[in-house]
Specification:
The complex is a heterodimer of chains A (about 375) and B (about 350).
Chain A (H helix, E strand, L loop, with lengths): L9 H18 L7 E7 H9 L2 H4 L4 E8 L7 H11 L4 E5 L13 H6 L4 E3 L3 H10 L4 E8 L4 H14 L4 E7 L3 H9 L7 E5 H7 L5 H7 L3 E4 L3 H17 L4 E3 L11 H10 E3 L2 E4 L3 E4 L3 E3 L8 H5 L19 H5 L31 H8 L2 H7 L1
Helix pairs in contact in A: 1-11, 2-15, 7-12
Chain B lengths: L21 H15 L13 H4 L4 E9 L5 E2 L2 E2 H15 L3 E12 L4 H18 L2 E10 L7 E11 L15 E4 L5 H10 L16 H10 L4 E4 L4 H13 L2 E5 L7 H10 L12 E5 L4 H9 L8 E7 L6 E4 L5 E3 L13
Parallel strand pairs in B: 4-5, 9-12
Antiparallel strand pairs in B: 1-6, 2-3, 4-6, 7-10, 7-11, 8-10, 9-11, 12-13
The chains are: A alpha/beta (about 375), B alpha+beta (about 350).
């Protein structure tokens, strides 16, 4: 497969792994005193485990799995609001598939669907728009979820709905942005991170500039990375070289896809449609300033919060504590490894997830469970 | 049977066609009997077969329900799957399939022309597999109570004396062989649904596997076989590992996958190991007989792409492990939940 297999070449990986080992030695990192690198994006977490990169890299390097899985940081109250919307008889509720299984306090969207709610899985908000055109007597609500990678397509669907003057389409906007939670992590007094692997597909939209503060204000290196194993290994090497050389810069490993300035058309569409919310709740991280997006007043008729009087923007959201025994928050902030959670693999499995990190395949716990080493699993049993 | 065959008088199926009256007779005689040619019009098939009388042979009996959306897709349709699925269930158990029944649940409003195409396709698949559809049933339900057409087929076959395929017979050292590329059916259905606007046409692998199984069983000692339908190869291997009480190790490099299928999986974030197949099986043979098995398989239409993908091991009993491209080992678990909404 072109443009994928070149970046999965085991020989190239071997070369990079040898270089990584050398730089780790030059830094003087050991198993006891490792270098901590956070991969922010859930897609990277998934790739690290799928290819077993954590097993192949030296012991002096430890990956900390960041908050970049949108399904995982979705608070339970948001799921409850989705269910509430979806159970209205006039509504066709549309969502990306991986949000279906996230447990709410009462039920997940999958359970709501089984109970009779009209919930459809879509691959793009434009599919939801098409459903609205075809069902003029129903209210089609799209669950806008995700980081900068998915915000532009939701923005476009709203612009398109406005251009067509559609009256039965709205977005339940829960889009969030990557930089604010990174700042929260960096401000944490217990922070142990030495550098970051940055989410490439987010930068494809916003460019590299929004990460500048990480290097400038906090003195930490960040390398924007692609998603194939060779991309990841090369990015890790670039971060390590910066650490070794005492540099803190924003570098772009994924330049075949990411222009430094991002995608101006997407940025303009987002500017047009969204504004920052004063604050937004993240599962495991709490309220974070300016970390969520809401739909601007001029598009209010496409805002499901306005239309149905639900959700965060209406101040109706309750804070729901994590389920008893769930340690997703600690895992998300790197305080616990997934396997150190007492519920891991027993009270919480992909089949019956307790916490969100086990639900999405991009969640750290699901990745550990699905792709974890054979030896560890057998030792744990 | 000298009377003229009754003819359908409408273009779509209505509730009247399920009512037990004249309209139902029109539907059954015009659409089904015309294609399947049962012996007589009794409600039961009355069958004789010499193989049944031979000492040591066993009767094999299986049933399967089929719900596919869309009903027609590149490489097949629900009719072809309904025949191949049941034929293959018999075949991977070592049986020579002989007779099938077919029961239809038809949604009111279904085009008769579509029904005719599905029935013709079942007949063609049955002819290809060398089996006969000897009895059947139709029910018509209100619009919205079914998605077009649901088909249930049951199948009867004979396992010749001395043939004993059983997952518990798989032993460490046995090699695992697949007959061809993986995931085509699942990818074909996904692409055919059109939701994804994928500009790729992948034909389903839907095909009968009984000739392949029969020649392979004649050539070597096949310990066990599974057709990798719902849940894909991963689920088939897990079932065998569990039943045999040994581990199974497969090699990522050895898995036969079409570039298009890999592409669809990359785009949608799916794992081809879990994609459904309708004409793909995995079988286990003693290591010493692997070459002979490959030769026998490759001599049949359905086995041209046969390759070894792994082996049974003493280590990690009950688990399936994949050696990845990078040399790490990862667990290949049973499918959790569903990868796709309803594909077979």
């Amino acid at each position: 497969m072109k443009y994928a297999e070149e970046f999965r070449d085991p020989k190239a990986a071997k070369g990079l792994l040898a270089q990584i080992a050398t730089v780790i030695d030059e830094i003087g990192a050991t198993k006891e005193k490792p270098v901590h690198i956070m991969e922010i994006c859930g897609g990277h977490t998934h790739a690290i485990f799928r290819y077993g990169l954590d097993k192949l890299t030296p012991e002096g390097l430890e990956f900390i799995h960041g908050p970049g899985c949108p399904v995982c940081v979705l608070p339970m109250s948001r799921v409850d609001e989705c269910v509430e919307l979806a159970e209205r008889p006039e509504v066709i509720f549309t969502t990306f598939g991986d949000a279906m299984r996230v447990p709410g306090t009462q039920k997940s969207l999958l359970q709501a669907k089984a109970d009779g709610a009209d919930i459809r899985m879509v691959y793009s908000p434009l599919d939801a728009l098409e459903l609205a055109r075809r069902n003029p007597d129903r209210e089609v609500v799209f669950f806008g979820l995700g980081f900068e990678t998915t915000t532009p397509s939701t923005a476009l669907s709203i612009q398109q709905a406005a251009a067509e003057d559609l009256t039965n389409f709205s977005v339940f906007c829960n889009h969030i942005t990557v930089p604010p939670p990174i700042k929260v992590l960096l401000d944490d007094p217990h922070m142990i991170l030495d550098g970051f692997v940055g989410p490439g597909h987010v930068s494809m939209v916003i460019g590299v500039e929004p990460y500048r503060f990480i290097a400038r204000d906090y003195g930490k290196p960040i390398v924007v990375a692609g998603f194939e194993p060779i991309d990841l290994l090369q990015s890790v090497l670039m971060v390590l070289e910066q650490i070794r050389d005492g540099r803190a810069e924003v570098e772009n490993q994924y330049s075949r896809v990411v222009p430094d300035e991002g995608n101006p058309v997407s940025i303009a569409a987002c500017e047009d449609v969204y504004e920052a919310r004063p604050t937004f709740e993240w599962r495991g991280l709490g309220e974070i300033d300016s970390s969520g997006l809401r739909i601007r007043g001029k598009y209010a008729r496409y805002d499901a919060e306005e239309k149905f009087g639900v959700g965060y923007g209406k101040g109706l959201t309750r804070f729901i504590p994590e389920p008893e025994g769930c340690a997703c928050g600690d895992v998300m902030t790197g305080r616990l490894k997934p396997r150190q959670c007492p519920q891991f693999g027993t009270g919480c499995t992909p089949e019956m997830p307790l916490g969100a990190l086990m639900v999405s395949s991009e969640g750290a716990c699901a990745a550990y469970y699905q792709y974890g080493g054979v030896e560890e699993l057998e030792a744990a049993e | 049977m000298n009377q003229a065959i009754r003819r359908m008088k409408t273009d779509t199926v209505t509730l009247a066609h399920g009512g037990g009256g004249k309209a139902m007779r029109d539907l059954i005689e015009d659409v089904f009997v015309a294609a399947f040619e049962p012996d007589g019009m009794e409600d039961q098939a009355r069958l004789t077969h010499a193989a049944l009388a031979s000492p040591g042979s066993q009767l094999a009996f299986t049933t399967d329900g089929f719900v596919v959306s869309p009903l027609e897709f590149p490489g097949g349709d629900i009719g072809k799957i309904a025949v191949c699925g049941t034929v293959n269930d018999l075949a991977v158990g070592g049986a020579e399939p002989l007779w099938l029944s077919a029961a239809f649940v038809i949604e009111e409003g279904t085009d008769v022309a579509l029904l005719r195409r599905l029935v013709a396709s079942m007949r063609a698949a049955a002819d290809e597999a060398g089996v006969r559809i000897v009895t059947g049933d139709t029910k018509v339900v209100e619009r919205g109570s079914a998605d077009g057409v649901f088909v249930t087929t049951s199948g009867v076959g004979v396992i010749p004396a001395g043939r004993n395929l059983n997952a518990t017979r798989v032993q460490p050292g046995d090699v695992a062989i697949v007959n061809g590329v993986l995931g085509d059916h699942g990818a074909a259905i996904l692409a055919a649904r059109g939701d994804m606007a994928l500009s790729v046409e992948i034909p389903s692998d839907c095909q009968p596997l009984n000739t392949l199984m029969s020649s392979t069983c004649d050539a070597v000692d096949v310990r066990a076989a599974r057709d990798a339908t719902r849940g894909g190869l991963a689920s088939a291997l897990n079932e065998i590992a569990e039943a045999a009480g040994c581990g199974i190790e497969i090699d990522e490099n050895a898995l036969p996958l079409r570039t298009e299928v890999k592409g669809v999986c990359e785009i949608l974030g799916l794992d081809p190991l879990y994609l459904a197949n309708e004409g793909t099986l995995v079988l286990f043979v003693p290591e010493a007989e692997a070459e002979a098995a490959l030769t026998a398989m490759r001599a049949t239409d359905a086995g041209k792409g046969a390759v070894v993908i792994g082996k049974a091991t003493q280590a990690h009993p009950g688990r399936v492990i994949m050696q990845t491209l990078f040399g790490g080992g990862r667990i290949v678990d049973m499918l959790v939940g569903e990868q796709l909404p309803r594909i077979c």
